[in-house]
Amino acid sequence: MEHSAVEITKDENGIPQVILRSPRGASARVSLHGGQVRSWKNERNEELLFTSNKSKLKPPAAVRGGIPTCFPQFGNRGTLEQHGFARNRMWAVDENPPPFQSVDSNSTTFIDLLLTSSDDDLKIWPHSYELRLRVILSVDGHLSLISRVRNFNCKPFSFAFAHHTYFAVSDISEVRVEGLETLDYLDNLCNRERFTEQGDALTFESEVDRVYLSSSDAVAIFDHEKKRTFVIRKEGLPDIVVWNPWDKKSRAIVDFGDDEYKHMLCVDAAAIEKPITLKPGEEWTGRVELSVTASIQ
Ligand SMILES: O=P(O)(O)OC[C@H]1O[C@@H](O)[C@H](O)[C@@H](O)[C@@H]1O
Predict the structure, then answer these.
(1) Where, by residue number, does substrate bind (predicted)?
(2) pLDDT tens digit string along 125-180?
(3) Is 194 annotated as a binding residue?
(4) pLDDT tens figures, 19-47
(5) Residues with CB under 6 A from ligand 1
């Protein structure tokens, strides 16, 4: 850990959080509540992630915004609470993580977090695991998340995983997503029925809640009004979730403002359709890199 660029402090509710700073002025803030990236700012100090003004910021409620980690379940596809328990737990700073393969630690600032099976969680999900999350801020302000899950059980287990990423956008009706063309998707608004994407790019004029299957390793979000583009690059996370609740659903979500849907779009790198299975002792790694550039549109 490069201590000069990493500050461990407490948030407004006394919860430990870690602030990462790049030499050029970008920053990220990671809360131990949920192991969740709560803020990601560019060199001009502009916030790139959405957080609802109505979000409950105190545990055990999940924070409505940033990048919650969905593990070991996505949505209600299982018997656990919605999106699994990881986003509601207190994580620890991992002082001594096992070595990573091919990570350039010279040009980056990072923090390692750890979540392990508690006695209470073993009652609802009887599998011993370690979930490690490395949050990396590069010199040029790119944000990368490397997640590793290891099976410490004597029998296999399976899980789903998602980086539930709330991107801040200027106006959802001026946004388009590229990289999902021709893919099959499961539509959560139609009982997870399978459809094939027909359009050139995805644009938004009503509620969307889809899991795109086996997407390419790069997906882009063009924000026309802000003239900027987010690029999501990923490995080990085949699916992409796209979610915007639009007006009616927004009014039904207690920790979300009625009009806030206009300023957010969730695009999550995920492994959902085919859960990941680990044999005893095995480890899985998923990576996602988020970058933002000025766009020519
Ligand atoms: O309200 P939650 O539990 O944070 O979930 C928000 C949304 O998260 C999305 O990822 C799901 O696809 C939606 O179905 C869900 O409504």
Answers:
(1) 64, 82, 87
(2) 999 999 999 999 999 999 999 999 999 999 999 999 999 999 999 999 999 999 99
(3) no
(4) 999 999 999 999 999 999 999 999 999 99
(5) 62, 75, 82-83, 164, 188, 209, 241, 243, 266
Tell me the pTM. 0.96
Residue 87 marked in a binding site:
yes
68 CA: nearest ligand 1 atom: 4
CB 291 within 8 A of CB 230: yes
Is residue 61 within 8 A of residue 180, CB to CB? The reply is no
> Are 134 and 145 a contacting pair, CB within 8 Å?
yes
Residue with CA nearest ligand 1 atom 3: 82
Residue 264 CA, ligand 1 centroid: distance in Å: 13
Is residue 73 marked as binding? no
Query: Which residue's CA is minimally distant from atom 9 of ligand 1?
Result: 243
User: Which ligand 1 atom is at minimum distance from the Cα of 210?
Assistant: 12
φ and ψ at residue 263, rounded to 5 degrees: -115, 15
20, 130 in Cβ contact below 8 A?
Answer: no
Rounded to whole angstroms, the Cα distance separating 184 from 297 reads 27
Give the HSE-up count for residue 166: Cα atoms under 13 Å, Cβ half-sphere.
Answer: 25
Angle at 127 between CA 92 and CA 234, to 5 degrees: 65
* Domains of the chain, first to last: 3-294 (2.70.98.10)
ipTM, 2 dp: 0.97
Which of these, 264, 267, 149, 169, lies nearest to 218 by C-alpha position? 267
Q: From 137, 147, 165, 156, select the one nearest 71 (Cα to Cα).
A: 147
Nearest to 15 by CA among 51, 61, 50, 48: 61
174-210: per-residue pLDDT in tens?
999 999 999 999 999 999 999 999 988 999 999 999 9
